[in-house]
Amino acid sequence: VKIRVNGEMCQGHAACHAHGGDLYPLDEFGYSSLDVAEVPAGMEELARRGAAACPEMAISIEE
Ligand code: SF4
What we know:
24% of the residues lie in helices and 17% in strands. The chain contains 2 helices and 3 strands. It binds iron/sulfur cluster. Iron/sulfur cluster is lined by residues 5, 10-16, 31-32, 54, 56, 58-59.
């Protein structure tokens, strides 16, 4: 499972980090600093929660 963040859609709400924790690192302005990342085994549910929390629908989960 992978997380992919569309940086052009990200508006810096930081909701991904609030709901998905360290799977969703932020830059110093509160925007996602993620492009693509492999989700560690067992953390898929957290990854999905973080993605679902994004109000800009900027995050996709690739199975
Ligand atoms: S929740 Fe969405 S808009 Fe907000 S920082 Fe994360 S990716 Fe960007």
